[in-house]
Amino acid sequence: MIGRLNHVAIAVPDLEAASAVYRDTLGARVSAPEDLPDHGVTVVFVTLANTSIELVAPLGPESPLAGFLKRHPAGGMHHVCYEVDDIIAARDRLKERGARVLGGGQPATGAHGKPVLFLHPKDFCGTLIELEEA
Question: What is the dihedral of CA 25, 27, 31, 34, to 10 degrees?
Answer without folding.
Answer: -10
